[in-house]
Amino acid sequence: MEESTKELREEWTLLLWTTVAVLVPVLITLWCSFQRPKRKVPLKDLFRKSKHGWHCTDLFNKPTYCCVCSQPILQGAFCDCCGICADEGCIQRADRILSCKEIMTQSQTDGRFHHQWVRGNVPLASYCAKCKQQCGTQPKLCDYRCVWCQTTVHDDCLSSLNEDLCDLGEFRSVIIPPYYLYQVNKLRRRHPDEYSKLAAVCGSGWTPVLVLANTRSGNNMGNVLLGEFRTLLNPVQVFDLSELPPSKALQLCTLLPPGSVRVLVCGGDGTVGWVLDAIDTMKLKGQDQFIPLVNILPLGTGNDLSNSLGCGAGYAGEISVEQVLRNVLEAEVVKMDRWKVQVVSKGNYFRKPKVLSMNNYFSVGPDALMALNFHAHREKTPSFFSSRIINKAVYFLYGTKDCLVQECKDLDKRIELELDGEHVTLPSLEGIIVCNIGYWGGGCRLWEGMGDEPYPPTRVDDGLLEVVGVYGSFHCAQIQVKLANPVRLGQAHTVRLVLKSSRMPMQVDGEPWAQGPCTITITHKTQALMLYHSAEHTDDDDDSSASEAEEPSADHTDTASNTQETVTVS
């Protein structure tokens, strides 16, 4: 009896200690999570006045050591530009004694300048430039890293390092050197020819890359990417679009050699459209020679434009930012059509019409209704829509709801369609989609469809729009899982729709609204210079013929508008 009681006591003791061992870290983590917002409030003013780009950190983030007192950081901050870390009590002292990256400085010789070393917190997979042994392996503040070329060196090897001049490292061809901006600032006459002369010291293959990130897009990776790109590049060439609009960010292009700049847009398709509109504004100002090439790093929910250009269906950190920069340099140039969508409301002919730019697609019907409902709820609770998976789940719920309600029923009786001036007889539809690109609805190839039907693949540079119809939300779902084809209505250079009665949901590139009786005219606007990743695979890897046809080197096809027979749902 005593033995059984003793065993039971030991079991309960083990259970108690196990529970404590599990609960204590969880409670500490929760406590730190609740304290973190409170801690940020008093530090905001300090961060705003600082020369460093401070961000809060603690024990539960990456283990770091204070660059001032050398102690492990429990609660403190790190600079995402130079990598300096400081304990909460040492932040003000770090501001005084430790310098951040200088965006402008005079070069020492041959376009190079001295290394700017920061001690401690070097990457674990780094190696000493002198002895070639691994750095950062000791649990203390040790070893050095150059904030520009990312060279690492041991404490003992620093004094014997043969070369003290920094060449900006692997990414010297994309970094805007601080000495270049120093020389530009000294110019009395700012002319493109002068910029080209100054760029000679940067090397023959110099292709500066500007990074424009939207921190509110999709899966909220924008803040992380901003910090990683500021670490690798000159902070002056990395922009947060929530703080500075692209129209102002792109003015840096006018201080660089014409035709040399590439822009990496980190965001969804809406962010890309925002940047392309800013580039159109540059054209209106007569700055055509400074127009950059645009590459996409997809952070949004659908990312159909990114998918069509071979940039993938979504970025979640699966490749490093170093590889992202390499991909930008290796991408090919392709022209992409942009379209003008003009909406003239019935009875308001003397008012200025609504004019929008379209890169992806225009639609009226169930998919626009889902986008409208999603947009309305995201505006009310933006913090809830911070994950790509959650966003797609919400779209699915709204689509399921519309299958039952059918708010867009009998669209064919309420709308008229003209393709290049020819009237098109519509079957019983609930939605019409006008596409410029190959992908729609988060990765579905809408025009090519499935089966043995010989429909040519779409192109982004042929000056043609593909027009299809859908029978409802359930039909949209069938198309996305390749159980059905859309109703192909034809291809055209100009599309005109007349909404005769009632209000209908509409969208252009994911920006929805409810529209009353009106006339919608879609015409060609201009072409944008985009970067195409031919080696990248999109979601439809098996569709090899389609991907080959979208290569930018293929011949342009300029087929006339033709109305296709409707296809029943399989």
TrEMBL record:
Its EC number is 2.7.1.107. Residues 536-570 are annotated as: Disordered. The chain crosses the membrane at residues 12-34. InterPro entries: ATP-NAD_kinase_N, C1-like_sf, DGK, Diacylglycerol_kin_accessory, Diacylglycerol_kinase_cat_dom, NAD/diacylglycerol_kinase_sf, PKC_DAG/PE. Pfam families: C1_1 (PF00130), DAGK_acc (PF00609), DAGK_cat (PF00781). Residues 204-345 form the DAGKc domain. Belongs to the eukaryotic diacylglycerol kinase family. This is Diacylglycerol kinase. It comes from Cyprinus carpio carpio. The lineage of its organism: Eukaryota, Metazoa, Chordata, Craniata, Vertebrata.
